[in-house]
Prior knowledge:
By secondary structure, the chain is α+β, with helices and mostly antiparallel strands. The protein has 7 helices and 17 strands. The chain has helices spanning 2-33, 44-84, 114-133, 170-187, 217-222, 373-376, 448-455; strands at residues 88-99, 139-150, 153-165, 194-202, 229-230, 239-244, 248-255, 260-263, 277-281, 290-299, 313-317, 344-349, 364-371, 390-394, 410-414, 420-428, 439-443. The strands form 3 sheets. It has a 6-stranded antiparallel β-barrel with strand order 12-13-14-17-16-15. A 6-stranded antiparallel barrel has the order 6-7-8-11-10-9. Strands 2-3-1-4 form a 4-stranded antiparallel sheet, covered by helices on one side. Helix 1 (2-33) runs antiparallel to helix 2. It is globular, with a radius of gyration of 32 Å.
Amino acid sequence: MPKNIIIATERVATSRTDLTEPTSNLTTVHSFLFHRPLELSEPEYPQVEYQRRQQFWDPIRLAIFTLIIAAIIGIAIGIVTHFVVEDDRSFYYLASFKVTNIKYKENYARKTSREFIERSHQIERMMSRIFRRSGESRFIRTHVIKLSPDEDGVNILLVLMFRYPSTDSVARIKKRIENIVYQSLKTQTLPLTISKPSFRLTRCGIRMTNSNMPIPSSSSMERIVHGRETAIDGEWPWQASLQLKGAGHQCGASLISNTWLLTAAHCFRKNKDPSQWVVTFGITITPPEVKRNVKKIIIHENYHRETNENDIALAQLATRVEFSSIVQRVCLPESSIKLPAKSSVFVTGFGSIVDDGPTQNTLRQARVETISTEVCNRKDVYDGMITRGMLCAGFMEGKVDACKGDSGGPLVYPDKRDIWYLVGIVSWGQSCALPKKPGVYTRVTKYRDWIASKTGI
Length: 457
Ligand code: ARG
């Protein structure tokens, strides 16, 4: 902004010199080309010239002056609109596609290997060229995250970064990016053959560190030693804390769009008044990274507190949050997706770490495994209490589990591209981490259509 203002003042200054210059130049020309009439005294001659010229220039000068003033006002309005209305936002897209003219090498699995570095640089150069050649000035940069094997080639996963005015619709930006890629597949000769049907852009479930480097799913796994470990910045960017004014943290929630959170219905048992709730984001409750009021609470019509059935609710933020490395939405799984038993999933929350303990100020995470409903409904486990809208996760031997205060929070699963999906909502359990009493979660896939009907997401 200051730079622009300087440019504007400079322009004014130049124009002013332009105006005065012809006058002085002409005077000079006169004095050199013509012999000065001897009758006129030295001081009189320029005086007459000056007056004549001033009369001649006056209306034009006035017009130009008005024009300059109009231009300054115009530029000022432009600057204000640019920074207030058209505030540029960075957009991250995760792009995945298949390249068919190269073979997978074992060393691609190690990001420090020469093979991985060389190949990913080649891909990054190619993607940059595609966008730069298309005249796409909003493109910032790209970074390869993962190369994985495929029967006929290599699967590529990369982050694409753009800046777009916040007024642009997300759907339009996505179309535009897709069109640029499709177009270049047709018209450019690229070093790598990208399979068009495999090309996908995603904007949810992405984890990024402060420096915009992706956090691989394996990093969360490695740090878990016994049960729950504290999270690092940006590791679970969809995690929110639902707080009751004056009473603090009550429940967790997951961000599914710029304004909608998914949580558990039982979180609103005490209080359903949106004006009494606040939502915070970031890995600590105090201080929070982002704080928002709540505008609307939608509790599932068929929630039953006795059976815990349909323990799902939506909360709408009073003002939208902007996505960043700290705040990001999680993907919702297609209703048809089925996770096999013993899949690795993660539960996160600010809940207590011992039965009936206090809320934690720093977000914690735990890796648990899905348990089939058949096993979970056994007489010695939950004896038939698990219905179709529920999902069990934990360990039969106990030890690792969600607990009080984690309710409403996310149970997430990374797909093979490292994109995170919300598969469960912390709902209930008998005590915490007891053997044969795993955590019970709301099965999000079963409510996919309900969520769409309420939010349009
Ligand atoms: N209902 C509890 C709450 O209000 C969370 C229950 C989760 N329990 C469990 N063992 N996984 O926070």
